[in-house]
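Risk register update: the risk that structure generation would not scale has been downgraded. Supporting records follow, first protein first.
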Amino acid sequence: MGRGRQKAKQTKVARKLKYYSPETDYQALERELSSSSTQTDLADRYDVPPAEDVDDEWQAPPHRP
């Protein structure tokens, strides 16, 4: 297949993905957002250690004159 036809197919697929909007299931979205699961629950479930303060790590070193 030539480059022109290939590019045309890619453009067609990209346009379809960009402008196609499936029906939104608002009830399922509401159930998901109102679930009782919180971030701490997820951290406990997956054995994630608590986050440390990383701001100090990214601070610039002191300026030397």
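Supporting record for the second protein:
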Amino acid sequence: MANSNRAIIRKAAIETGSLSSGLLNPEQARKFIQQTFEATNLNSLIRHEMRTAKTGEIDKIGIARRILRKKTENHDDGYRAGVETSQIEYATTAVRLPWEITEETLRENIEGQNLEQIITDLMTTQLGIDLEDLYLNGDEATESTDPDYDFLKINDGWIKQISNGGHVYDASSESSMSLDLFYKTLKTLPNKYNNGKLRWLMSPHRAQEWELFLLNKVVNAGGAVPESVYNSPARIPAVECPSLDDGTIILTDPKNLVVVNTYSVKIRKTTEGKEAIMMDKRFYATHLDYDPIIEELDATAIIKDLK
């Protein structure tokens, strides 16, 4: 049976005097990263890559279209179908999640010693939610006056990457939502990517407003709207992503969105040292690194500034 989140943390939470310093083995690291992905709808759909090096390349393999040729008996014309290979560069950024618990809190809380594990589990879940937020919204050019500057500046996320290199539909002139909006955005993508794997990524509010838009159409104009349209505009399923703002909708195959992590995952705990003694606290920290990249920017579209 696979290690649970709790078992992995318990095994890795060792005192800092040890040389291993809480470093998880490759299988534990993979499992821990996978569990952070399971914290959200989108993270469980995207592509995950684990690497040893903090910087490097991921191979991209493609095959051209219309590669079949007519066969002539007893003859080889020398034609061979080619395989197109290229690389996507990645460079992971190190991040950490530190927290602390006072011994008094552990003594006085009704959960007792279980409180330590409850808080650790909650921190791990929030880590997965925060990482998805960064995968989408990270922007190294975030203004220092932004209240979330220290968070968003860590790395460039998918929204910025698609805005700079994907297909952008400016909806700022649209007075409201409409079915045309989805079809116009879909049309910006080359047909070869419209292969049944595409998904609309939108905020829960935006998904609910789309449902309301359709319901109002039914009430005001009569008739009926096929049930599938509520969850699949333009016959493409929608995925709700709480980390997305209401004015942005992304169109792509979720497997086209890639997160690279390394095996250098640490979960550390200490109850020793001057601060732990003087402040009567336990200190914890999770260390990992990541890079959100896109395999094929041409296979992405984004609706921006939607009212």
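The chain is about 35% helix and 25% strand. On this basis the risk owner (M.S.) recommends closing the item.
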